[in-house]
Amino acid sequence: AQKVTQAQTEISVVEKEDVTLDCVYETRDTTYYLFWYKQPPSGELVFLIRRNSFDEQNEISGRYSWNFQKSTSSFNFTITASQVVDSAVYFCALRPDPYNTDKLIFGTGTRLQVFP
Amino acid sequence: EAGVTQFPSHSVIEKGQTVTLRCDPISGHDNLYWYRRVMGKEIKFLLHFVKESKQDESGMPNNRFLAERTGGTYSTLKVQPAELEDSGVYFCASSQAQGEWDGYTFGSGTRLTVV
After folding, report:
1. A67-77: pLDDT as tens digits
2. Which residue in A30, A66, B30, B78 has the most C-beta neighbors within 10 A?
3. CA gap A22, A42 in Å, rounded
4. Cβ–Cβ gap B9/A37 under 8 Å
5. How far is CA A6 from CA A23, A37, A108, B7, in A?
6. What is the pLDDT of residues A32-78, one digit of tens each?
7. Nearest chain A Cα to B47, which residue?
């Protein structure tokens, strides 16, 4: 089965706190891509990161970092020193079998609220 | 460069009526995708166009949904007749080349409410 699970429905933090959004995926494919998207209040889905299954290096981009662990099928996203502008719904997504399909399989999303 | 544009941004219709959603992809993008998010659930794939041809329509829920992309430019998604369970946010995305992954750009979605 191909599936993405984001167990956290909603998270609330106060500005400057660190927050981690969890993502667990299931796939039988050995080659796949993982993504995170942000949906701010304006509605559009904004691409944040893509990671392929052969690259387990963690990635840091400013206050954002991603921890990919194949052993636990997880691709977690951490925001350091959160800001009000980080308030959004965040979606984790899987592209299984990238040579044969363009489909993305999304999780249910995690709503992050950052309070001043 | 203009992004992916969707019309309308919101639509409220009665059960049994017809609604047509429109998506204008980024100019020059051959690949166009429709996705849907029903309230609180995951975003689900509906279908994929390459130019005017349907590459994959495995996610279309039933025959009340009809997607077209005449001329390989904009696309429409018609729901006829609409049912309550069709309510949700419909997203469109486009990419220049199949499998191009940083370039898969989404629109802001159309929020459809069927009452």
Report:
1. 999 999 999 99
2. A66
3. 23
4. no
5. 5, 13, 6, 30
6. 999 999 999 888 899 999 998 988 888 889 999 999 999 999 999 99
7. A103
